[in-house]
Design brief:
CATH topology: Jelly Rolls
Low-confidence stretches: 6-20
Radius of gyration: 19 Å
CATH class: Mainly Beta
Shape: globular
Distance between the termini: 47 Å
Structural class: alpha+beta
CATH architecture: Sandwich
Number of helices: 4
Strand content: 35-45%
Largest sheet: 7 strands, antiparallel
Strand order of the largest sheet: 1-2-3-7-6-5-4
Number of strands: 7
Helix content: 25-40%
Number of domains: 1
């Protein structure tokens, strides 16, 4: 091994040991979730659990704390699983067209929106919420738009 190759190999080993690996969500990229490249975004954390079927993203944008959670599960073979997940929305929901086989958007409260959808036998739920310190820019519509965009990505990856 030449000296150049040895230095290169040593550099690769050191950089790999110093770098902290981020969890990778199969269904959507972190860049999509945080609206990269947004210089106002910081403190990004990604947690993937349940064999990759639950992806949770936490990040700060200005004085607001965002939480995005994507959950995927396989339906038991009947439409009851979608209906059960859709019950989380209550009666105030909006049907979304073009996202999976079926999808609905609903509010989860003052600062959160949810999309529940299905692609074949896979049911997915996308939750987007924000804890804002006086940030009036994050309206229910903008959170709903973000949840819808992420649901489109998830549904596309499930096909």
């Amino acid at each position: 091994m030449t000296a150049k190759a040895a230095i290169l190999a040593l550099g690769m080993l050191l950089s790999a040991s110093l770098c902290k690996a981020q969890d990778v969500c199969t269904w959507v990229t972190t860049a999509t979730v945080i609206d990269a490249p947004d210089p106002a975004v910081s403190d990004v954390q990604t947690v993937v659990t349940n064999a990759g079927n639950i992806c949770t993203f936490h990040y700060r944008k200005a004085d607001s704390l965002y939480n995005v959670q994507i959950t995927i599960h396989t339906a038991s073979g009947n439409s009851g699983d979608m209906a059960a997940s859709e019950k989380q929305c209550g009666s105030d929901k909006t049907a979304l067209t073009g996202i999976g086989n079926e999808a609905v958007l609903c509010s989860t409260g003052a600062r959160g929106e949810r999309v529940v959808g299905r692609v074949r036998d896979q049911v997915f739920v996308v939750n987007v919420s924000v804890k804002a310190a006086g940030d009036p820019t994050e309206t229910a519509k903008s959170l709903g738009d973000k949840a819808t965009l992420l649901a489109e990505q998830v549904a596309g990856n499930l096909f």
